[in-house]
Amino acid sequence: MSEWQTAEEFRQHLNTVFNVQVDAPKPIDLTLVGVESRPSEAHEEAGMERFSVFFKGSHEFLLPQAMYRLVHPQMGEFDIFLVVIANDSDGYRYEAVYNYYKPDAAKTN
Q1: Which terminus of the chain has fewer CB atoms gathered within 10 Å of its CB, N or C?
Q2: SS3 state at 96
């Protein structure tokens, strides 16, 4: 896996489970339910990777807005900033926003 996660990497793992590494009475799992790319607008700087990932978690445990370590069998371990965006009948929904220079673009800037 690359140093930074990409939208394409996440898309390959839609509907799979990511374990949240926190001190809790039982394991906390989130399911990746969506990936939305955000193309650069004409007035914005080019060469950026911009996307959001969306996770679903149960009602049993609310993860407050914070950095978390996620573990996935194929993507490995990485830190991610999660924000609660909804609480519906299926559980809590979380979003993480990515916005960084693509490695190839950084070399040319």
Answers
A1: C
A2: strand
Phi and psi angles of residue 57, each rounded to the nearest 5 degrees, phi first: -130, 165
Express each pLDDT in 59-104 by its tens digit. 999 999 999 999 999 999 999 999 999 999 999 999 999 988 777 6
The tokens of 75 are what?
């993507």
Length of the chain equals: 109
Residue 12 domain-assigned? yes
This prediction's pTM: 0.85
Rg (Cα) of the chain, in Å, rounded? 15
User: Structural domain of residue 14, as residue ranges?
Assistant: 7-108
